[in-house]
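Q: Hi! First time doing this. I have a protein sequence and I read that you can turn it into a structure. Is that right? Here it is:
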Amino acid sequence: MFGAALACITAPLVLGMPMLPLLAAFAIAAPWIQGIGRLRCLVQGCCHGQPSSAAVGICYHHRRSRVTQLANLANVPLYPTPLYSIISNVLIGVVLLRLRFLGASDGMELGIYFILAGTARFVEESYRGEPQTKQIGGLHIYQWFTIGSVVAGIVCTTLTSEPPVIGFLPPTTALWWVALAMGLLSGSAMGVDFPNSNRRFSRLAAAD
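A: Yes, that's right. Below is the predicted 3D structure, encoded as structure tokens:
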């Protein structure tokens, strides 16, 4: 995500393309990308929740899961916080698409994304139970980041930007193929875990 944001920011200097429309487009796509990434978290146990009741919790058993190696919570029902993230990202994605169809400006799209994503993550963090997450002033460090996200979103909604002249255009065949290739690449990088491999980035937990 940092790489995509950096590409949007540097595009005016390198390619002469306007920055704000690119950032708005990235904001519209971001919830769906992050939702795919959370599938890996849900299966592997990364970003896991605190202990919960068996009625709402999910248990992890694999010896290489972070739940087992870092939190020592194997076989303990935990809040399925990655699932909460997936649900919130789907809702955010639908809202942003609706705003685009209604002709919202690029600044508004970007700002609403920061506000909604920050708010959802703040709530999600209150259910997460990773022992390695640093706490400052009684809040997880990521909750402080989300407060910054909401403030940034408020600022973005005040940016002067004209509503799009046209809405979505029917994608060309070439664009469909490029989108499919990039989707598969991103989905594989963010959503696939190889628990029996020792290769770098093949899984989210350290080797045995």
